[in-house]
Amino acid sequence: MYKVGITGGIGSGKTTACRVFEVLGIPVFYADTVAKEIMCKDAVLVDGVKSAFGAASYSEDGKLNNKHIAGIVFNNEEALAQLNALVHPAVFRAFDAWEATIPSTVPYTLKEAAILFESGSYKLCDTTILVTAPYEIKIKRLMQRDGVTEEQVKARMDKQLSDEEKAKLADHFIVNDEQQSIIEQVLSLHQGFLKLAKELKNA
Ligand code: ATP
Question: Residue 92 Cα, ligand 1 centroid: separation in angstroms?
Answer without folding.
Answer: 25
